[in-house]
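It would be a great kindness if you could assist me with a short task in structural biology. The matter concerns a single protein, recorded as an amino acid sequence and a row of backbone structure tokens. Kindly check, if you would, that the fold set down in the tokens agrees with what the sequence suggests. Thank you for your consideration; the sequence and its tokens are set out here:
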Amino acid sequence: MMKLIRLGGLVSQAIFLQFIHLVGLGAFLVSAAAGYFRAPSWSVIILGIVFGVGVDKFVDVTDVTGLLDRAQKASERGGFLIIVYFAIALVGYIVGAYARYHHEKFKAKAAAPAQSISKK
């Protein structure tokens, strides 16, 4: 149980580091857009792998190592970054889907009184 709590803390610190670098924010926004525009749910896996491998290979994230040293060392492993970006993409996709649901619900409420007036 303690190892799961430590892993959760390490993943949350790594997510925080990726948001500091703005790459995590970009991944979150792309996956939120995918959820909003009803992309297939398997796109979350693809986005997590693409962003995880892309950051591991092309982005130097060592400029804030003093903040969270353990999360930075774990982020140097490519597999760990895929887990981190999968979590970011999953949450972003769910947020986008909920935003779409509430947007359609709001539009339906706003359109309902206008239809009842025009029928008279």
